[in-house]
Amino acid sequence: MFDHARAAVEGALAAGATYADARVMIVRTESMQCRNAVVEDVRQAESAGVGVRALVGSSWGFYATPDLDAAAPRRAGEQAAAIARASALVGGPAFELAPADPVEAHWETPFAEHPFSVPIGDKGDLLVEATRIMASTPGVRVANASYAVWDTEKWLVSSEGHRISQHLVECGAAMDATAVGDSETQRRSYPGIRGQYGTEGWELVRRLDLTGEAPRVGEEAVALLAAPACPEAETTLILGSEQLALQVHESIGHAIELDRILGWEAAYAGTSFLDLAGLGRFRYGSEVMNVTADATLPGALGSFGYDDEGTPAHPVDIVRDGTWVGVLSGRDSAAIAGLGSSGGMVRADGWNRLPMVRMTNVGLLPGDSSLEEMIAETDEGVFMDTNRSWSIDDKRLNFQFGCEIAWEVRDGRLGRMLRNPTYTGITPRFWASMDRVGNASEWTFWGTPNCGKGQPMQVGHTGHPAVPARFRDVRVGVRG
To answer: CB–CB of 257/359 below 8 Å?
Structure first.
């Protein structure tokens, strides 16, 4: 596989590229969907090919082929260089990539039980039983469960001397129950709106204990039908870690992608309200707000050994004590922005897609409080968790989120369950109102396997470490 990648790079250089890199990838996937104790969909797929990038002046060219015969990778490199030359006709001044030491290495996901070693019948039995238990709750009409597995091998070669192989194993599962009442439906999901995923083996799914959690999920879905609506107010808001993970994803993760800040990327999720002139000075949130992007976290979905440019995974400070100090970057964007080095955040969702800046594990670092303490210290407020809907503008500034479930907080205790809760805010004002952050024992590495970006759209796997947190004077209400 290294020979194929090297041939693609040599073809690009011979055709006039000043820099080139190539990735050979073999990706195997498996997924299953189950509804009301019936397996409705099983998919298994395998894909292989080589993708090559070529740099000419200020412009990239990219070309990919599934043909790994002797001459095909070299031709792909030549085509990538030709595309780069054509793009350079309307490009800007030539630029140098941020420096990177060439690396020869291998990295692979640690795991105890490879998901493909588990009989598919056993996986199906798990989903069938979980949905059967949820559906047995009176009032539950629809019970869903699913799992997904990815096994990715990749080989990277660059014209600067990178020679890196990686083997990534990712998997996870999800389930939800929908209860139907006279005038509306209510859903409860576990462990989050789309489940939980990570760079682990099947041991991750076993830890989720789907069948053990199924009775509670069904019961809460039914209970929500009779719960009072979340009142409209400006009050103290406590968010569970799963909801906070999505809050981080939408109002921090996309906003700090350097290609969006530079105006290079606007497809699918818009640009950013941030201006590089504010880096190191702009107040993103309160002093208890600390955010990192760290692709080295064990088991997190956004973890890897090296990005698709060969930059080693490493933690990058994003927000420190409330001040914006870092971005998600690659070698080209870092050079243009004068950052000196890449953040190691360039990835593609397959061999036939151009690598771009993607989130790794962008998450809120733990503080010194706890969910129990936040509730005990709150005279009046609302505790919300598990996302149900979200809306945010194309600058990642104004937002509204809806959650599946909430509880009122009065005199330091949880009170009534509330249905259809929402909250709204403006990104820096919202984060400035955060006054309590959960501790390390509550730190959860939530995985988001469906982050969309680019055109044609790429689906990225990202991680969001999060803890419960408390926010003051937030507008809450009821979903329409």
So the answer is: yes
Contact, 367 vs 288, CB < 8 A? Answer: yes
Contacts of 124 (CB under 8 A, 6+ apart): 32, 34, 39, 42
Q: 105: Cβ–Cβ under 8 A, 6 or more apart, which residues?
A: 163, 164, 165, 305, 306
Residues 197 and 174: their CA atoms lie apart, in Å, by 9
Q: How far apart are CA 465 and CA 474, in angstroms?
A: 23
Query: Is the Cβ–Cβ distance between 431 and 285 less than 8 Å?
Result: yes
Chain-centre distance for alpha carbon 256 = 14
pLDDT band per the 50, 70, 90 thresholds, residue 193: confident
* H helical segments located in 63-118: 72-88
Q: Can you give the pLDDT at residue 113?
A: 98
- The answer for residues whose C-beta is within 8 angstroms of residue 209's C-beta and 6 or more apart is none
Residue 92's pLDDT is 80
Shared domain for 214 and 278, answered yes or no, is no
Q: Are 328 and 336 in contact (CB under 8 A)?
A: no
Percent of the chain with pLDDT over 90: 94
What are the tens digits of pLDDT across the range 92-136? 888 889 999 999 999 999 999 999 999 999 999 999 999 999 999
User: HSE on the CB side for 110, CA within 13 Å?
Assistant: 5
Task: State which residues form the domain around 424.
Answer: 233-478
- Which stretch of 67-81, 90-104, 115-129, 197-211 has the lowest confidence by average pLDDT? 90-104
Alpha-carbon distance 169 to 153, whole Å? 9
Both 210 and 278 in one domain: the answer is: no
Q: Measure the CA–CA gap between 381 and 242, rounded to whole angstroms.
A: 19
Q: State the Cα torsion 115-121-123-127 to the nearest 10°.
A: 160
pLDDT given at position 478: 75
Q: Report the length, in residues, of the chain.
A: 480
pTM recorded for the entire structure = 0.95
How many CB atoms within 10 Å of residue 106? 12
pLDDT at residue number 181: 92
Cα angle 421, 184, 251; round to 5: 30
Are residues 219 and 280 both part of a single domain? no
Domain C-terminal end among 177, 193, 226: 226
CA dihedral 291, 395, 62, 338 (to 10 degrees): -60
Judged by DSSP in three states, 401 sits in strand
Residue 480 has pLDDT above 80, yes or no: no
For residue 66, what are its two tokens? Answer: 């599934």
Q: How many domains does the chain have?
A: 2
Q: What's the Cα-to-Cα distance from 470 to each of 248, 344, 355, 434, rounded to whole Å?
A: 14, 31, 37, 6
- pLDDT over 90 at 267, yes or no: no
